[in-house]
């Protein structure tokens, strides 16, 4: 049975819910319906929706209707419009103490009866590292959100689900892709899955962190084109939207609960769009899952530290304004700048273009929106104020510059109410803008990306295990609300792993460190849940155990914004659990 129910069809319309979910002609709106979806259906004249949980739902409306409403309703903001995310990757298990756990003389841990869930670019299920000796798969299921010809998971209404039985049938056929046509075009998901749970491949000197764990993969569909256009992101980027990631989380949790097995989740995606304080909708969902018993959630800290995409504002006492300079590269399609203040501070901005055109200060008012087309230059500037952003409660200003003139743009920040003297500014993440587009006086601090600023999940940075140096791009804390992030670092530089078409390759990035930590978490879940030593284990207990067991250098003060509480060492963590330290 295919669960693409025809829900709320119009009188002359036979369009299904699946059709509008994947259609480029429908917009997605996240609404806090709180039990009564009809209020929002009437408000937006909508007929298609999906319930996410008891608080949030997604409503789908035609794109032309969406743009008509965009400037009508003040609640169309950073929370209701889907946020976009991209992937982070460009002998390690021995340094993390993982290999010692595989071969432990008394309690060898390899992830038996534990699930590892990934939400990413998919998986090459035909790769040998995911196949047992009897030619069956260690993959429990794949939910491919991009394919429409198979059976969608119950109550999810789109994509195609392939079970372990389907995958085994494909592996034993002459043409596997005719049975399970799901592939991984970028290799990112395959690499992370192998890093977390790949089987031993002696010829390549490769093993995943939890080689006996089973895998559940959600292959994300790409973000809708209108979202990329509105966010000024070039369409050739690999970009996903938070609504599909949230659905992926729901799928992983349901599968784990139905199988009654513990679950370690790896998130190797991130964005700079948001408050960086754990209050985004995706982070709410991640924190909710992280609080479940028998589950551990691990998130990559991002690769943004050295890219110049963050500015840490310290407003000068007694000053009227402070200038923040942003270099925009040649041929940049557009730039989006966010400013987040700390309550009770209130700021307003003016803008000076590279050719000297001055956009006077826009007064900060609730829902204030201004759009200005420069006279000399071709650029169009859009500014919006949210004096009290819904989730964080802080002031949020967004500046959107279309077709920006290359050169130095000045954001003139005025202090209207200044108490904390602090504000933070971000531009888009790597890949979405050109390398030369950056703040002239950036800060590497608070470059942990969303959703790694979540309250409960384990945030992991990357280091080079060969020379014990921090990966230069590893996202650094603290969060905007001054929490220590990352909690840990793990090997993430020049790591070998599986790639599509039976290949192996070398990649670098914090998502790889997160995958290794997810595998390490699976080992602790095996000891805690499967072996019955701590049946109430969850993300909090796994995180605290890994923090206690982390390797700490004598020349570094911990915790800190770069290394957190130290480098992953699951053997030390296990010995602490057993009272041997």
UniProtKB/TrEMBL annotation:
GO molecular function: serine-type endopeptidase activity
Swiss-Prot/TrEMBL keywords: Hydrolase, Protease, Serine protease
Entries under Gene3D superfamilies matching the protein: 2.60.120.1290, Peptidase S8/S53 domain (3.40.50.200)
GO biological process terms held by the UniProt record: proteolysis
Name of one Pfam family that matches: Peptidase_S8
Peptidase S8/S53 domain segment(s): 111-308, 443-566
Active site: 120 (charge relay system), 188 (charge relay system), 511 (charge relay system)
Family note: Belongs to the peptidase S8 family.
Protein name: Subtilase family protein
């Amino acid at each position: 049975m295919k669960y693409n129910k025809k829900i709320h069809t119009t009188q002359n319309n036979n369009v299904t819910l699946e059709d509008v979910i994947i259609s480029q002609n429908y917009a997605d709106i996240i609404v806090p319906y709180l039990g009564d979806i009809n209020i929002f259906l009437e408000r937006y004249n909508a007929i298609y929706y999906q319930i996410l949980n008891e608080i949030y739902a997604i409503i789908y409306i035609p794109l032309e209707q969406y743009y008509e409403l965009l400037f009508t309703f003040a609640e169309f903001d950073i929370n209701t419009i889907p946020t976009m995310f991209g992937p982070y990757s460009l002998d390690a298990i021995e340094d993390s103490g993982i290999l010692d756990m595989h071969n432990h003389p008394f309690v060898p841990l390899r992830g038996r009866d534990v699930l590892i869930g990934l939400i990413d670019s998919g998986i090459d299920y035909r790769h040998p590292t995911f196949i047992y000796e009897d030619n069956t798969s260690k993959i429990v299921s794949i939910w491919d959100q991009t394919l429409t010809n198979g059976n969608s998971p119950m109550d999810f209404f789109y994509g195609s689900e392939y079970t372990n039985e389907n995958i085994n049938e494909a592996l034993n056929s002459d043409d596997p892709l005719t049975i399970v046509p799901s592939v991984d075009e970028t290799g990112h998901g395959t690499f992370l899955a192998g890093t977390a749970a790949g089987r031993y491949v002696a010829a390549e000197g490769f093993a995943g962190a939890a080689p006996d764990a089973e895998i559940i993969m959600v292959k994300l569909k790409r973000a809708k084109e209108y979202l990329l256009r509105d966010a000024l992101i070039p369409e050739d980027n690999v970009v996903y939207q938070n609504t599909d990631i949230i659905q992926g989380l729901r799928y992983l949790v349901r599968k784990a609960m139905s199988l009654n097995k513990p679950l370690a989740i790896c998130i190797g995606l991130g964005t700079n769009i948001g408050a960086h304080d754990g209050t985004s909708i995706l982070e709410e969902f991640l924190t909710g899952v992280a609080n479940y018993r028998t589950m551990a959630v691990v998130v990559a800290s991002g690769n943004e530290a050295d890219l110049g995409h963050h500015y840490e504002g310290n407003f000068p006492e007694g000053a009227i304004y402070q200038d923040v300079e942003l270099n925009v590269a040649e041929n940049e399609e557009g730039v989006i700048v966010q400013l987040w203040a700390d309550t009770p501070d209130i700021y307003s901005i003016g803008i000076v273009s590279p050719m000297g055109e001055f956009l006077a200060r826009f007064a900060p008012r609730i829902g204030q929106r201004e759009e200005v087309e420069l006279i000399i230059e071709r650029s169009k500037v859009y500014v919006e104020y949210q004096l009290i952003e819904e989730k964080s409660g802080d002031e949020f200003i967004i500046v959107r510059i279309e077709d920006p003139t290359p050169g130095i743009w000045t954001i003139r920040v005025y202090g209207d109410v200044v108490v904390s003297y602090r504000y933070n500014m971000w531009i888009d993440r790597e890949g979405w803008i050109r390398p030369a587009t950056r703040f002239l006086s950036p800060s590497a601090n608070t470059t942990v990306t969303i959703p790694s600023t979540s309250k409960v999940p384990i945030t992991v940075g990357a280091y080079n295990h060969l020379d014990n140096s921090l990966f230069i791009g590893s996202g650094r804390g603290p969060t905007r609300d001054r929490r220590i992030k990352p909690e840990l670092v793990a090997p993430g530089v020049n790591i070998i792993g599986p790639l599509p078409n039976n290949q192996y390759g070398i990649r670098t990035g914090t998502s790889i460190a997160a995958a290794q930590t997810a595998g390490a978490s699976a080992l602790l879940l095996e000891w805690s849940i499967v072996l019955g030593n701590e049946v109430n284990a969850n993300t909090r207990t796994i995180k605290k155990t890994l923090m206690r067991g982390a390797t700490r250098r004598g020349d570094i003060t911990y915790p800190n914004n770069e290394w957190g509480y130290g480098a992953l060492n699951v053997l030390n963590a296990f010995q602490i659990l057993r009272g041997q330290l």
